[in-house]
Design a protein that fits this description.
The chain is α/β, with parallel strands linked by helices. The protein folds into two domains: 173 residues, Rossmann fold; 67 residues, no CATH class. 32% of the residues lie in helices and 24% in strands. It has eight helices and ten strands. The chain has a six-stranded mixed beta sheet, with helices on both faces. A four-stranded antiparallel beta sheet has the order 2-1-4-5, covered by helices on one side. The chain is globular and about 60 Å long. It binds adenosine-5'-triphosphate and magnesium ion. Adenosine-5'-triphosphate binds next to strand 2 and helix 1. The site of magnesium ion has 4 residues, from helix 1. Its main location: membrane. This is Sugar ABC transporter ATP-binding protein. It is found in: Cell membrane. It is a peripheral membrane protein.
Length: 254
Amino acid sequence: MVDRSGTPLVEMRDISISFGGIKAVDHVSVDLFPGEVVGLLGHNGAGKSTLIKCLSGAYRQDSGEIFVNGKKADIQTPRDARTYNIETIYQTLALADNLDAASNLFLGRELTTALGFVDDAAMEAETRRIFKRLNPNFRKFAAPVSSLSGGQRQSVAIARAVYFEAKILVMDEPTAALGPQETQMVAELIQELKKQGLGIFLIDHDVHQVKRLCDRAAVMKNGELVGVVEVDKVSTDDLLGMIIAGKTPEHLAA
Ligand SMILES: Nc1ncnc2c1ncn2[C@@H]1O[C@H](COP(=O)(O)OP(=O)(O)OP(=O)(O)O)[C@@H](O)[C@H]1O
Ligand SMILES: [Mg+2]
């Protein structure tokens, strides 16, 4: 059970953002606690990605506020988000295909020797150390990431977030392009991160996966928040009902 009695890791309050008259996100409030996975569900275009892009600094909300650990956060750019230990793994993974796992893990934040040279040996050693914990079966340390499977690529992105001490992880459909085995691997990674106390926003279209991996689910429709429920207290049909009808049954509101 996630302890929700303390201060939330993230509180998004009354967030709105429009694009040329279309309200992509309309007065949405959600929060996230340490060790919690909150799933974001909703039809295509519901506003899920737009909402979390306000947290990751890709977009700036028109109105509303974000609090991190109870303090108001000013997030204007992805760099700002990182200063709040927020890391994002996008729908389309941004990895440098021709570089190996270690180079990708440290991309833009390379380790250097005392003399200021890029320290490849140290980066590979750190990469092996972190994979030992996250994905012990990973072997392709020297290969360009273009030769990795979708799941292995996801694990490189997740390792990068973990190495840089993300406390808040935003995952936008991390398993959308993966087969069942790889999806399972990412699911295990998410559970491991949760155990380590990270808070995770997980956008996913699969209600079964949300029920399995998440503590709560927030459902959006046409930019609005339909409701937030504890997944233990709902069936997948309840979740589908919320997505389609856009209404939370009274007894389910959490
Ligand atoms: N940069 C943008 N410019 C204009 N409109 C945008 C932009 N980004 C999002 N939108 C619009 O905002 C709405 C919400 O889009 P968003 O990408 O957040 O949906 P989503 O819930 O993530 O959908 P999906 O499940 O398809 O990824 C849509 O109507 C979309 O067309
Ligand atoms: Mg999206």
